[in-house]
Amino acid sequence: MIRAFLLAATTALAACQSLPASAPAFTDPHADVRPIAWNELLDRPRESATARIAFGEGELEFGELWLPDGDGPFPVVAMVHGGCWLSQIPGTILQDYVAADLRDHGIAVWNLEYARIGHETGGWPGTFEDIADGMDHLRAVADDYPLDLDRLVFTGHSAGGHLALWAAARGGLPEDSAPWRADPLLPDAVVTLAGINDLADYRAHGPGRCGEPDTVDNLIGPVDGQTRELMAQVSPGSMDGIAVDQVIVSGELDPIVPPVLGARYTLLAAERGDSVRHVVLPGAGHFELIDPVSAAWQEIRAVLIEALEVE
User: Fold this and answer.
1) Structurally, how many domains does the chain consist of?
2) Which of 111, 196, 268, 269 has the most CB atoms at less than 10 Å from its CB?
3) Exposed / middle / buried, residue 205 (Cβ in 10 Å: 0-12, 13-18, 19+)
């Protein structure tokens, strides 16, 4: 089913430049200022989530639920915000814009917060434990709200793309790993948006816009401790294989996570037998991928809707 979605999504993306004459072309009001920065995104008014729900006792252990109008049950996108894993950069509010857009298209959104570098429990393993527990808490949320967890997709942007992909892969963690959970909630598919999918590659070849290599070392520990065993617990690029279908989305003009990184991860994942596809969005930078008025987001939303089988 998802393999068919991947093919259909790619076909749809390829056809986006040849809409029928009767379909009005999407007009991007920010097309003359590409690529945008995160502060430009946050200058706009934001809507509020339906509820903020704790999944643990820590100050940062919560998710924000965006619930559509109607009776449901609603398909769910669980998303993880980016920000170079750093506490100094804004958190869930970075995703508020696309969360509101998905809600308006009949999709419930679970927008996760988590401890980051600079927070007391940030880094390995606390950041990863937060993501694991936050994703699994969706089962409890579904007891109180009309959510259809049989239609579930994970997504994340930038550093959040790394964590969303890791969350989809964590079923393969060894039992002695700190964020291992006996019955992890896994999605039907995962869509990473400018995701830092391979920590070793980003540490070695990232352009430095996220403070790498230092940020990677601060996330998982000094380079001399980055053993094969550790990397297989923290980096999707170093795992043996990921059973969940993956769509890797890159912006053509992204200066923070250039599309060559997405291409290399896709090749690596395909060689190990994963179901994976790389989509490069022309004219898009880094933050267009979470800007609901950008042409890039129109295509990303279509991929998410197709994966969720939303009519």
Assistant:
1) 1
2) 196
3) middle
